[in-house]
Amino acid sequence: MSEEVRKRLAWIAVDWGSSNLRAWAVDGRGEVLSRGSSDKGMLALAAEGYEPALLETIGDWLPASGRVPVWVCGMAGARQGWQEAAYLPVPVGLGELAKAAVAPVVNEPRLDVRLLPGLCQHADPAGHGFDVMRGEETQLAGLVAREPGFSGMVCLPGTHAKWAWLEEGAVIRFATHLTGELYRLLASQSVLKHSVADAELDAPGCRDAFVAAVREASAEPGRFGQQLFGLRAADLLDDALPRGVARHARLGARLSGLTIGLELAGMRHELSGAAVTLIGSQALCSRYALALEALGHDSRRLDGEAAVLAGLGLAQADQRRLQGDDS
């Protein structure tokens, strides 16, 4: 990084996951000056390893003197992370995250680190169960930063897909589905591993296979187990399927459709005429958008990286206001 860019650095954004971390050097106007990443996620670190891992990623960005604010969301604030940033219970306004941030002790005098909290939900008589999120709340805050007072339903696809209900910029409740992890377990550790392969939906026949599976699982979720084993049987018996890699790609697309369709079956009574806001990667959001469309629902997408940066930026701005620094 050039000396000129170091001079422009205003703060650093960090999204620290279980498997990796991503960091961004940001100037005073919110422009990203540089990006960094590491495979040292929470699962690879003890508490004393976080500061060295962070410095390995962002050390070259730091000026010779002064303190740089570093705002961190994700698993660094988990109980097993750098230091616990306790969950905030819903309902909660997404502008409240900065107030609950914690500051771990650091040895590097140029670092001013703040760890954002996650959100939690307790079971209630309405049937909403216990749930937690850590990291996704910052993406939701990014949506609110871009659209103050946002109300509506938001889906954040991923290993553990999150659905959140927002009212006037506050998270009222949320629900987690194990869809991504379920797909991976079935594809890699069940009998289906002999029959399915990951595939892009633009591969021949995969889009149609995916859409058909979404509709079937959503319409008859009670047959999910039977539908799953049908993938293995089709691999053995269906002469209409192509041979080789294309065959397993087609069945992999169907498995993806079945798992996402099961998730949407559980959301059937929550979905309305309003568009669902999807936050995440292009690939996953496109898959969910197609699944929602297959069931007659509209959606729109906010990029996951843009949401994280906007959410961390909101926390950074809120902290400055709390300190009475509007410069």
Please, could you describe this protein's structure?
The strands form three sheets. A six-stranded mixed sheet has the order 6-12-11-10-13-14, sandwiched between helices. A hairpin with a 2-residue loop joins strand 11 and strand 12. Helix 3 packs across helix 9 (304-322). It has helices at residues 3-8, 50-58, 136-146, 179-189, 206-219, 224-237, 245-266, 282-294, 304-322, and strands at residues 9-16, 21-27, 32-38, 68-74, 88-89, 92-93, 111-115, 119-121, 131-133, 152-156, 161-167, 170-177, 276-280, 299-303. The radius of gyration is 22 Å and the shape is globular. The protein has 327 residues and is an alpha/beta fold. Helices cover 36% and strands 23% of the residues.
Low-confidence stretches: none
Number of strands: 14
Backbone shape:
globular
| H/E topology pattern | HEEEHEEEEEEHEEEHHHHEHEH
C-alpha-based Rg, rounded: 22 Å
Summarize the topology.
Blueprint: H1 3-8, E1 9-16, E2 21-27, E3 32-38, H2 50-58, E4 68-74, E5 88-89, E6 92-93, E7 111-115, E8 119-121, E9 131-133, H3 136-146, E10 152-156, E11 161-167, E12 170-177, H4 179-189, H5 206-219, H6 224-237, H7 245-266, E13 276-280, H8 282-294, E14 299-303, H9 304-322
Parallel strand pairs: 1-4, 4-7, 5-8, 10-13, 13-14
Antiparallel strand pairs: 1-2, 2-3, 6-12, 8-9, 10-11, 11-12
